[in-house]
Design a protein that fits this description.
By secondary structure, the chain is mainly α. The longest helix is centred in the middle third of the chain and has 44 residues, at about 20-60. It contains 2 helices and no strands. It has helices at about 1-15, 20-60. It has a domain at about 20-60.
């Protein structure tokens, strides 16, 4: 049993077949997190912009011009 575990650990350390896939997955995850953060901040800015436009239009309508 001990020999099996030692061989398994040595083979696991030397194995590099799935390394590229893991690296690509980490890159995709990092890009995804950056996009989520950017879209979140952008949505807050857009809501603020539309809110100020709506308040400005309401102020014009209330002025009775």
């Amino acid at each position: 049993m001990r020999d099996f575990m030692v061989r398994f650990i040595v083979r696991f350390i030397r194995e590099e077949q799935g390394q590229d896939l893991v690296e690509y997955a980490l890159i995709v995850a990092a890009v995804g997190l950056a996009l989520i953060a950017t879209v979140n901040q952008l949505s807050v800015a857009i809501v603020s912009l539309y809110s100020s436009i709506t308040q400005g239009l309401a102020g014009i309508g209330a002025g009775g011009l």
